[in-house]
Amino acid sequence: MSQLTPKLALNNDQKTNVLTLVTNFLDQKAGIISLAKTNNNKYIAELAKLTEKLNAGLKTALTAQQFSKFLALKPKTNDPTNVLSQLFY
């Protein structure tokens, strides 16, 4: 949230909604992460579902311009040192 709030200019209501959406996404992602090593195809499919759910929630919580900015924040590669990578990879 420390990166999303200033980059997306979130208001207080949006901060609360986005925090809930991101927290739920990361909790659910943690529940499937073991599949990445045991069944990568299933992991990719499950991650796609979670990402779709996150994006649907963000589309309602953010303005269209903010959502576009969010998508533009996607790192080019999965960089473990970039916290935003966790939302995209």
Would you kindly provide a written description of the structure presented here, covering whatever features stand out?
The protein is mainly alpha-helical and 89 residues long. It is built from six helices and no strands. The protein starts with a helix and ends with a helix. The model has no long low-confidence stretch (mean pLDDT 95).
Mean pLDDT: 95
Whole-angstrom Rg: 13 Å
Helix content: over 70%
Distance between the termini: 17 Å
Q: Low-confidence stretches at least 5 residues in length (pLDDT < 50)?
A: none
User: SSE string, helix = H, strand = E?
Assistant: HHHHHH
How many helices in DSSP terms? 6
Largest sheet: none
Quantity of strands, as a count: 0
Q: β content, as a range?
A: under 5%
Shape: globular
- Secondary structure category: mainly alpha
Secondary structure elements and pairings:
Layout lengths: L3 H5 L3 H21 L2 H4 L1 H22 L2 H9 L12 H4 L1
